Amino acid sequence: MLRHSFAALVLALSAAAVPAQAEWSEEELRELVLETIRSNPEIVMEAVAILQEREEAAQAEQAKDILSQQRVLLETDPNAPVLGNPDGDVTVIEFFDYNCPYCKRAGEEVTALIEEDSNVRIVYREWPILGEGSVVASRAALASRAQGKYEEFHTALMTAKGRLDEKSVFKIAKSAGLDVDQLRTDMEAPEIDEHIATSHRLAQSLGFSGTPSFVIGDELVPGMVQLPTLIDMVEAARDQS
């Protein structure tokens, strides 16, 4: 299908050079395409660019539909941690991994956003994709909710130096005042599995391929975002609501 679309597009771009014909055989089409390319090599790049634009537009439209379908879950999942103003009028959803250096930088920007805008709520989607240490960190962070210390522990993990592993995660947990034995038990709770599985499913359906990634209003934002851009996007979402 893609080969025929590309061939048809190449021919369409060079219609003046191709004799009119109602239908081409496979062999005739192939020869016409090859001859057109030989005579007009720049058409190939033009056709590739057009096909890429069409594919990106189709993916964006699909992601928009999925965002519409999943918005309630993204914004109000009771199994997702919320920081900032729980009753804020704009919700920012962040997918992140504690071992992602860009997430650590983005975390500083999100913290600054909370300080800058008292009417924004942040929904965190723990999305551990960078190895076993990330999985341990996410499970421990989610489990810390049972002790009422998610915010403190999340911040401690985000600001920790070096790559997190099981040993460092529990060391940080102890320093944050958590009961580590209770934490280990709570890490096996089914809601921990559910949160991480939902994060994977949502990220995949929205077309995210790495961390950090954000959902702000109707915008899907993969990658690092600095405070001025976050503020602008939050204001745009606020104006749309």
From TrEMBL:
Molecular function as annotated in GO: oxidoreductase activity
Annotated signal sequence range: 1-22
TM spans (from-to): none
Chain segments annotated as coiled-coil in the UniProt record: 50-77
Gene3D superfamilies, sorted: Glutaredoxin
Domain called Thioredoxin: residue spans: 51-239
Pfam families: DSBA (PF01323), ScsC_N (PF18312)
Keywords: Coiled coil, Disulfide bond, Oxidoreductase, Redox-active center, Signal
Protein name in the entry: DsbA family protein
